[in-house]
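Quick one - inputs below.
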Amino acid sequence: MTATDTGLQAEYAAIFACGAAAVHLDGAPRDQAEALEAEHRSRRDALLDHYAAAGAEAPAPAAGYDVGAIADAAAAQELLTKVETDVTATWRAGVAAADPQERQRCLDMYAASAVALARWRRAIGQAAANPWPGRPA
Amino acid sequence: MFTTRRGLLIGAAALAAAGCTEQAQITISDADLTAALRTARALAQGAEALGYSEIAADHRTHAETLERLLRPSSISEEKAEPPADAEALAAAETAGSAEAAASCMTTESDYAVLFGEIAASRAAHAAVIA
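Output:
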């Protein structure tokens, strides 16, 4: 499995999670959750275009993803914070790829993920600054 | 020969195994690390001047890491012209992100992920300042 394969899987999971969480949110967090879902769909589509152009078979999404019970807005916020952090960490790992095209793709996705994570954290009233986005603690 | 940090460490181990007793010195002179350090310091000063203390702290964290990686070399800190406003700071963050991203793609050292992290962090700063 390539870094791009892993990243695409993370984007699939994020789309599912955003859809599940957004309905529990209001105001700025709701708006941002919907923006996040649109962004993940856009990244997924760009990645699928890459596979099509390369004549390669893209990994398929799972039928569903276990996001746990979402009882309220706090749980929805917690879920999306974890999902956005996971997506950022996934693309960060791909930056180590030796292949220049793979590294460039992962770097672009990583930067976009870090931006999305910062915007999400700001929307829910948390500090957006982070010197090492997606780095494991 | 040993052009990367990992290479130097392997080289030091090989020399030790061969019976060479002289202390191995790891010296790294990396133009990309030096450029990233200068930019991190300038961005820290700019963010601090405009009251973005959390963002300035990120840049100081980057600078501390880069200083550590450049040892025993040291780069003196220079006074940077502060950005006129938030828009100028966001533009400087974007430019700094592009610089680190370019280093990530072209570096011959083992620091591609580090440069990627710095590029991503600066891109996020630009987005939340704008």
